[in-house]
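Intended use. Records such as the peptidylprolyl isomerase entry shown here are meant for training and evaluating sequence-to-structure methods. They are not intended to support clinical decisions.
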Amino acid sequence: MPAINRRRLIVAAGALAASPAFAQTAGPQPARPRVRIETDKGVIVVELATDKAPITAGNFLRYVDSRRMDGAIFYRTVHAPGAPTVGFLQAHITDGAKLYPPITHEPTTTTGLKHLEGALSAPRFAPGTAQSEFTILSSDAPHMDANPAAPGDNLGYAVFGQVVEGMDVVRAIMVLPADGPADNPVMQGQILTTPVRIITARRG
């Protein structure tokens, strides 16, 4: 797969429901909560890995249950060169007053989850700085997983869920025009000309 540009708040992620990370283990398991994200481009339904990444998934649910995710926007798309549907899209809450404190980082080496197509992941700067932002992957991105052999903090990003319905909406957003103004030159060509609004995000 073509390499994806890393930028200041890269992220996104999750594992496919059929992958080992999301497979049911022996014995009865509690149902994973689902969230219906209604956007002005369609509906995306996600399943949250509260069993594998309780801090990160719980943080997302906190924003959903308090309705602070309503009105957030998908504002950024990152593509592999020449491959408009390979990469990820990113959302954030624009009102800083709605943000909760940063959360503890849950690396993929701890959770066992992977950055696969449809995964939700938590953008961050240093480990432990993630707040409301989340990314949805439109393709596998193993370079986002924690890798103890890699340089830097090598803890990757925290996968906490998976799209179970609406990947067509994700891909439709991925190919929207992205010539909006970028604060960081690295993000030039990645900012959606017209952000996609999250109308509501509700459990169920």
